[in-house]
Specification:
Blueprint lengths: L1 H22 L4 H17 L3 H8 L1 H4 L2 H19 L3 H28 L6
Helix pairs in contact: 2-5, 5-6
């Protein structure tokens, strides 16, 4: 049942984002920021954890999950470091995912030799 919940929740998030892209004039970058901020907001008010428990990877993999990860990192860093944790926590929490994306993107560019669009 975990796989089914992850599939339909992740698909619903993607479908809602697609509808948002089609029906509004928002650019994709702004929609991505909206998703990250929504995930951070839901994490801050305590709604994202139960949602993630239910949906598993369907909730943790999209950009909503990245926003929640940033918020958890900020909360932990503020508890440990005080005010300076506001600035350090998000970077520390998101570092692994960001580094992995950069490394795997670079490796893919070596394997597939991308070309610039003309």
């Amino acid at each position: 049942m975990d796989y089914i919940n992850a599939f339909w929740v992740g698909g619903l998030i993607c479908a809602l984002v697609q509808i948002l892209m089609e029906k509004t004039k928002l650019m994709p970058g702004r929609i991505m920021v909206l998703l990250v901020c929504t995930g951070a907001l839901l994490g801050a008010i305590g709604l994202y954890e139960p949602f993630q428990e239910f949906a598993g990877a369907g909730a943790s993999v999209p950009l909503l999950g990245f926003g929640n990860t940033l918020m958890k990192g900020v909360k932990e860093a503020v508890d440990e470091q005080g005010f300076l944790g506001l600035f350090a926590g998000g970077f520390k929490a998101g570092a692994v995912g960001t580094a992995a994306a950069l490394i795997f993107g670079y490796l893919a560019s070596l394997i597939f030799s991308p070309k610039m669009k003309k």
